Amino acid sequence: MADDHFSSASSASSPAATAAAAAAAAVGSSVIPIVNKLQDIFAQLGSSSTIDLPQVAVVGSQSSGKSSVLEALVGRDFLPRGSDICTRRPLVLQLVHQPRRPADAEADEWGEFLHLSGRRFYDFREIRREIQWILARPVDDIYFMMAETDREAGGNKGVSDRQIRLKIFSPNVLNITLVDLPGITKVPVGDQPTDIEARIRTMIMSYIRHKTCIILAVSPANADLANSDALQMARVADPDGSRTIGVITKLDIMDRGTDARNFLLGNVIPLKLGYVGVVNRSQQDINSDLSIKDALAREEKFFRTQPAYNGLAQYCGIPQLAKKLNQILVQHIKTVLPGLKSRISSQLTAVARELALYGEPVDSKAGLGAKLLNILAKYCEAFSSMVEGKNEDISTIELSGGARIHYIFQSIFVKSLEEVDPCEDVTDEDIRMAIQNATGPRSALFVPEADQQMHDPSLQCAKFIYDELVKMSHRCLATELQQFPVLRRSMDEVIGKFLRDGLKPAENMIAHIIQMEEDYINTSHPNFIGGSKAVELAQQQVRSAKCLQRWLKRCVSVYLDGVDADKVQASEKTQKSRAILGRSGVNGVVTDHIQGVRPAAEADRPGSSGSGSTSFWTSIFNSNEDRTHASARDASVNRSYAAPAPNLEHSFSTIQLREPPVVLKPSEHQSEQEALEIAITKLLLKSYYNIVRKNVEDFIPKAIMH
Asked: What is the per-residue pLDDT across 134-154, written as a single tens digit (0 to 9) for each?
């Protein structure tokens, strides 16, 4: 019953189904060869092609049965066999249906390689040897060189994305185009790189990620189908399974009691295009030269005799797979054909427009000379117009040409100088040292920091302008130069050298401008602030600082008085009690020299009474002169109470001078006069810096453009 059901299901067909199949075959025979021709053309273009054509990519792990499936579809043995040879390059296999010739049946089938145009291989063993030789070559070898002396096997087992394109004509095939991708491997073999698995997966993904690619995922039935590498990669590239066909091989060697029925029905991993189960030739069958025709007959018998596959005729066998692939590919081409036609038309229009820009080819020397002069004149005119902002193709979205140069000068260079403070890196101590080491504040007017603050931005501005001129030069090169790439490179080199030769003199001129400003300080400049005005402003600043100092001192004193009020009152009561006790002696006699009571002069000295905080703030806000007078007063009082009078005769007899120290530092405390001098110096420095800055802002752009 199972035999009858399978044979009837596989042979029965309605007239409508027959007509539909005939129509599909007619469409397939017309559109698939057209796509094949486009693939051949784009293959010669290489990576410059940006159009993705419809194709079927065969994905599977090594030993999954991919090669047996392809040979069964062709009906002939043509792929290399053995553990030492595996597919390491994509094999684009184009099957072309060829009507049978009654006169010579042997000439009905042949193969052609794209890299051997015009040569037909009637012996499929020669096709196998050609593929084997190509695969044996190192991956970086140019396999298009087919000289017999170069046909020596290489030992490299790496992978390459360079395609092998094989076209097979036969009356026994349907119009199908397949791309056999390298089998997924996990363990490197021989001298394969350690990352061979990652390389193969990257190559496979570069094909199947395109929406125009149908994925033929081949998985062996004697392994865990749920963890199939092919199905996992297909799910990544095609999450909804809308363009994936599952092929389950080796159904005849599954464990006893198991079958793939649920997989074929899509109950485990659903695929919209479904599954097809096949039975491969075993290695023993291949070694015993079992023909593919006999293998297909044995496959048909297997599915008829297995109850598990009863009623699944449309899901089983190589003939069903070939028919399914043909129908799906034709339908897929019809779906993507409108968009494909639109993309090709748009690119064709763009290429035609680019070709028209090159102009007509010129053969005579006189014509070439005139064309060269015309190109040079156009370049010079375009460059001048761009610098002056008169070019016709001026952008309304962004600044270009001379506008960018003006922006660099005014909005970048000038503003950067205006934001510089000449006294930012100069401390008051630096100015004090300069004043004390020189004859006056004017000698410290132009410091090295001010020189660098103008020199470095000026050089950077020149580099910016140079870069802009280089960009403008590239934009001005005439489109006709694309017809003469050697001339374009020569003009690039000459113009680049011309601009570089002008950059060095500009940098030298910038250095001279800065040095000139440093070498002569024109204090008679009408915009210079002058000495009297600087002194007046400096005195105002010093007075303002002193007022602020007195105000802060008063605030601190009030704060400290409030905190120590109780202590001060207690201290006053104690002092009064002691004074009364000191004045009242025995029998009413008042004594002022009782031990422990200091004289009034000593009690009035600064720092002799009160808290430690008061002494600290007093030492901060007292001026240097006040501290000097206080020290002299303390010394005189101490001498009157402590030290005896020296021997004057001995003092005036010998006078010895101290040797000056090796390193002589200025006094640590800043006097009022020094503060005034520092303020005057800063005013003079800022005033003259503004004069120099305006000169630099005017002369540097002129020097650069000159």
From this structure: 776 654 444 333 333 233 334
Contact in structure between 131 and 166 (CB atoms under 8 Å):
yes
Sequence spans of domains, the chain: 53-138+158-337, 366-531
Number of Cβ within 10 Å of residue 381's Cβ equals 14
CATH of domain 53-138+158-337: 3.40.50.300
Q: What is the DSSP letter of 427?
A: -
Residue identified by tokens 């399914």 is 324
pLDDT at 606: 39
Round to whole Å and give the CA distance between 133 and 154. 9
* CB of 282 closer than 8 Å to CB of 251: no
C-alpha angle 412-417-418 in degrees, rounded to nearest 5: 100
pTM assigned to the model? 0.52
pLDDT tens column, 474-525: 888 766 677 788 888 888 889 889 999 999 999 999 999 988 888 888 878 8
For the CA atoms of the chain, what is the radius of gyration? 50
Sign for the CA dihedral angle at 608, 614, 620, 623 comes to: negative
Q: 216 pairs with which residues across the strands? A: 58, 245
pLDDT digits (tens, 9 = 90+) for 582-627: 444 444 444 444 344 444 434 444 333 333 333 332 332 333 344 3
Q: Which CATH number fits domain 366-531: 1.20.120.1240, 3.40.50.1010, 3.40.50.720, 3.40.190.80?
A: 1.20.120.1240
